[in-house]
Amino acid sequence: MKNDITKGAIKRIWGIAKGGLRMTDDQLYTLVMSATGKSSISDLTEAEGKEVIRRLNDLLQKAKRNQLLKDKSTGVARIDAWRRTEEQDEKLAILIERVNGIYPKLSLDSLSRRMFGKEGSKLNRREAQAVIEALKSMCSRNQIEV
Fold first, then answer.
1. Are 112 and 123 in contact (CB under 8 A)?
2. Are residues 22 and 51 located together in one domain of the fold?
3. Pick from 142, 118, 130, 144: nearest CA to 92
4. Minimal CB count within 10 Å: which of 35, 36, 75, 110?
5. Which InterPro entries has this protein been placed in (predicted)?
6. Do 97 and 64 reside in the same domain of the chain?
């Protein structure tokens, strides 16, 4: 029929469910049944397929958001877990100033672009720490006190 779900949409449904959400077959069929009232994905219409895909994408976004907000060690939600600290900002400023005696054109932006492809102001906590360690290494190679 003209309104039948396409093979591409069926692949997308299975891809999101299995790859992104790691759903079991039963979980997927329960979602399809609750969204459309049908027990078979191949029996869906194009509009019903789009609705199932929308619901799967909503679940996937929620799962990604929850994963980012949870501190893995305690399971407690922490919105600022990825933000770099003031201490890191201070340490970066001090180390850049010290290294500038040997590398006058070096800046936080130039180093962070080389290492991570983004401006220094957009570094997260882990990336900022990696830049700090790189700067410390530069200091020790050139016998500059850290």
1. yes
2. yes
3. 130
4. 75
5. Phage_Mu_Gp16
6. no
4 has which bridge partners? 45
pTM for this entry: 0.47
Residue 77 lies in a domain: no
Structure tokens at 108: 């936080």
Sequence-distant (6+) residues with CB within 8 A of 145 are 98, 139
Say which amino acid occupies 11: K
Per the CB < 8 A criterion, the answer to whether 116 and 123 are in contact is yes
Digitized pLDDT (tens) for each residue of the chain, 146 residues in all = 568 899 999 999 999 998 888 889 989 999 899 889 999 999 999 999 999 999 999 988 888 777 765 555 555 555 556 778 889 999 999 999 988 888 888 888 998 999 989 888 888 888 999 999 999 998 888 888 77
